[in-house]
Write a structure and sequence with these properties.
The chain has a domain of about 40 residues. The chain is built from six helices and no strands. By secondary structure, it is mostly helical. α5 runs antiparallel to α6.
């Protein structure tokens, strides 16, 4: 029944806004778009929604944005979808490794993880000079009993 009455709800909100304009509660002018959003008829089972979101996202049939929006609609305490997505991607090291393997672009991986650009490039490791190898047999001085 809600879909049938959707047009009537829009007219009702428009009527209320016009009354507020006529009573000079709101300024006269363009009315903002308004829409009624109803909660589900039955209480939402958060565990069932979470299970559905996990399975759908793992199967690749919904995006991360849709998954977070579904969790928000189910009543999970998520303040901002964009912030939540950034936090999820900042900890998605497996996905970042797959991105690095696929593209070979470290800048894209750093952007995906939300890391700042590293200005100091690490150079090659310094080579430490090694002492020359001693011969197999020590040299004995015939005049002296000491080894050289």
């Amino acid at each position: 029944m809600r879909l049938v009455r959707d047009h009537k709800y829009t007219l009702l909100l428009k009527f209320v806004a016009r009354l507020h304009q006529a009573g000079r509660v709101w300024p006269v002018g363009e009315l903002p778009a308004a829409r009624l959003a109803f909660s589900p008829l039955t209480p939402t089972d958060q565990a069932a929604v979470l299970d559905l979101v996990v399975k759908a996202y793992a199967a690749g049939v919904i995006s991360l944005e849709t998954a977070v929006r579904m969790l928000m609609d189910a009543g999970f305490p998520i303040d901002s979808a964009a912030t939540e997505i950034d936090l999820i991607q900042a900890r998605a090291f497996d996905a970042a490794a797959r991105l690095a393997d696929a593209t070979g672009d470290n800048a894209a991986v750093r952007e995906y993880l939300g890391l700042t650009e590293d200005a100091s490039e690490t150079g090659p490791a310094p080579l430490i000079p090694t002492p020359p190898l001693a011969d197999a047999a020590p040299v004995v001085n015939p005049d002296d009993d000491t080894l050289e």
